[in-house]
Structure formats: C-alpha cells, structure tokens
C-alpha cells in the first residue's frame, strides 16, 4: 500500500440484472467524502467499469453522487445510480421509498420498491431530430446504410437527452444491429459533432418477445467503446419514441429495453415516460473490497 494512502471500500455492482456477471457493472464507492476529483478519476480508471459512482454528503438532497468513466466525469449515469441504490438498500442504509439525489444536472428522485427495484427519475427530456448522412453513419457503425435508411423516413435520427445527450439511430433488423462492427474513431467524431456522449442504435426486432426494443450504445469519446446496458440512453430513447410518435398513439405504460447480448452482458432497462422519464431495474453486487487511494498530489497509480 502506498505510504499515507487512504483505503476506501469499493464495489462492482451489476445493474439492470439480478444475476452477477451480467448486465452493466458499475463501480460504487459508498463513502467518497474528502476525495479530490483526481482521486475519483484514478479510482474509476483502476476499477475499469464504464462508470463509477461516488457517494458523498449533500446539503441539497439525501446524498450527493458523482460519476466518472475511466477517462472523464459525466453528469448523469443511470446504471451507476441503480447500482448504488441497490447496494444501499441491500446494506440496510436506505429503506423502500423515495430518496433525493444531488447530481450535476440537479436534484433527482430515486424510488426503491420493497422487492429491490430501483426507479430513477431523469432530467427533463429534450429531443431534436437531425439530418444525418446515412452512408457516414453506416460506415461509423459498421452497418449497411440501407438498414438505416429503411426506417429513417418514419423514425429519423435525433439527439435525445434526459441529462446526457445521445445520438439515437434506428436500425431495421436485429441481424444488422448485432452484426455491427463500429469504427470507434468515426463513432467518436460523429458523436462529438452532435454534442452527444455516444451513439445509441436500436431496433424493434428484439431477442425476447416481451422486449420493446434491442439496443447497443457506443461512447468511445467517453472512454466506453461499448456500454453493456445504458440507463441514461434508455431514458433518452424513451423520450425520443414519444417525440416521434413511434407507436402512433399512446406509448405503453412501461417499456422493456434489452441490451448487452452482443457483449455477453445481457440486461433489461424498464422505461416509463409520462410527466417525467423514469428508468428502473435491479442490481446485484459481484465484487466487494477495498482500494488504496494515494494522496491527491501523489502521481502514483492507484493500487488494488
């Protein structure tokens, strides 16, 4: 252990699943009080999860949370929020009910049910349809552009956000989406041009008959080449589906978005779009231990 290092409890919690080693793994640091940004970034890089949630005291809400990918801080993360609150519930720190959470986008509500399902209210949605060059998008995703044009007339590409923006791109069939071979540099450039965290590609042609859609999300510019299951992007897509009237009438009261099958981390996000946008799911801890965090002015690598 590095001299004068600060030892903190850390966990890897798999979100949007009830089975360990599936869904989307989030790092969780239950007590991040006193950690500098550089230390939180180092911990996130060491854990290697797509996002790590750092919990701290808050004067504005029940608790404060910050999210870091291995490369940078992000303002909002659905799966890490689900993971953190499922852990707090399992530890007996919080009970079923509604809790408030201070994030970089404001104070949000998180509801815990008696059976351990966590529902996160996301930020107010925004959806803006965009004209895209389908040949360029197809090349970036490694998908035949015809699979994008086929649905593009009725379901245009759009930048949608419920706290974190994504370029939402519909694809006609699961075979096309599953066979995608993205050029990560091209994906990062395309997302950056649209001020988006990444590209969320989806198809209504799902694996499970009970699912509303199947999705894949690529955010290499944020240090996440492919995210297994993405809560914030699912919320953004739910808002998008309402905005483009995808169901030609009322949205289902609850939608089921499946993701992660093509990276062997299947999971399900439950999405409700009404007066606000909510994403929900379960989570289970897969790893529980401690990490040695060097002082903020120490350049050494964080040691496990």
Range of helix content:
10-25%
- Content of β-strand: 35-45%
Shape: globular
- The CATH homologous superfamily of the largest domain is called Diaminopimelate Epimerase, Chain A, domain 1
Main beta-sheet annotation: 18 strands, mixed
Radius of gyration: 19 Å
Structure annotation, total helices: 7
Whole-number count of domains: 2
Name the helix and strand elements from N-terminus to C-terminus, one letter apiece. EEHEEEHEEEEHHEEHHEEEHEEEE
Based on helices, strands and strand pairing, what is the structural class? Answer: alpha+beta
- Using the coordinates above, name the CATH class of the largest domain: Alpha Beta
Structural write-up:
The chain is α+β, with helices and mostly antiparallel strands and 304 residues long. It has two domains: 6-120 and 283-293, Diaminopimelate Epimerase, Chain A, domain 1 (Roll); 126-275, Diaminopimelate Epimerase, Chain A, domain 1, CATH 3.10.310. It contains seven helices and 18 strands. It has helices at residues 37-47, 78-90, 134-141, 145-152, 174-178, 184-193, 231-243, and strands at 6-15, 24-29, 51-56, 63-68, 73-74, 97-103, 106-112, 118-121, 126-129, 158-161, 165-170, 198-203, 213-219, 224-227, 255-259, 267-273, 277-281, 283-293. It has an 18-stranded mixed sheet that branches. A hairpin with a 5-residue loop joins strand 7 (106-112) and strand 8. Helix 3 packs across helix 4 and helix 3 (134-141) crosses helix 6 (184-193). The radius of gyration is 19 Å and the shape is globular. Residues 298-304 have low confidence and may be disordered.
